[in-house]
């Protein structure tokens, strides 16, 4: 085995040993701290103020579901029926599409510098489109920061904040967070990354929603999936699947 591949395998094994111990500890995520959370979620009041989403994280995440999508459009990956992931339709796995993906760039919010996705080649890539809606945005910023720490050596995580009409939330990440935070985009001026995601859908399929968080994951083979308003359990379970696939393929080298 070549030295570079041996080095990668070492960090894969180290990563697996580190995340196995923390996946069950969800912190304040996926929890409801009030008995009326189910009623709040069903009434569509999860974003009525900045505190509701953190108070009713589980119900508010489950309230936003993938919508009216046919069962045959899902890939179950052996998960339970309620943990299905929506497959991002389109020929993402061919060489041309993968080359296009790794040529994408974002401008980082912290310093205005340009970062290329070419740096993500060989890693599991996670992209989160986060509308800047009060409460919801900060909840998911906190969640994705934690997810990045759970998988420190095997994923790259990009946050794309979207300014939406009527909202002006300014969420924050910890100063030393390893999450790549892009400058804000808008529904009209989406930037190259979201335009690429849109191209991966067939005509007439559901596009990106701007009233909820949409989470995309691309494995090293180019297979891409999404979850809409995901729970942290669903995110970490899906990432673990792709990291395990990455480990398996690296062992084959």
What does the model show?
With 253 residues, this protein is of the alpha/beta class. It has one domain (3-30, 64-252): Glutaredoxin (3-Layer(aba) Sandwich), CATH 3.40.30. It has helices at 3-20, 37-42, 52-55, 57-63, 95-102, 136-150, 191-199, 232-252; strands at 74-75, 85-87, 105-107, 114-116, 124-131, 155-163, 180-181, 185-186, 214-218, 224-228. Strands 1, 2, 5, 6, 7, 8, 9 and 10 form an 8-stranded mixed β-sheet that branches. Strands 3-4 form a two-stranded antiparallel ribbon. The radius of gyration is 18 Å and the shape is globular.
Name the overall outline: globular
Topology as a string of helices (H) and strands (E): HHHHEEHEEEHEEEHEEH
State the fourth-level CATH superfamily. Answer: Glutaredoxin
**Mean pLDDT, all residues:** 75
Radius of gyration: 18 Å
- Given this structure, which CATH class is correct? Alpha Beta
Q: Give the number of DSSP strands.
A: 10
Strand-pairing-aware structural class:
alpha/beta
N→C terminal distance: 7 Å
Helical fraction:
25-40%
Could you name the CATH topology? Glutaredoxin
Q: Approximately what portion of the residues adopt beta-strand conformation? A: 15-25%
Per CATH, the architecture is 3-Layer(aba) Sandwich
Count of folded domains: 1
What ranges have pLDDT less than 50 throughout 5 or more consecutive residues? 1-24, 65-93
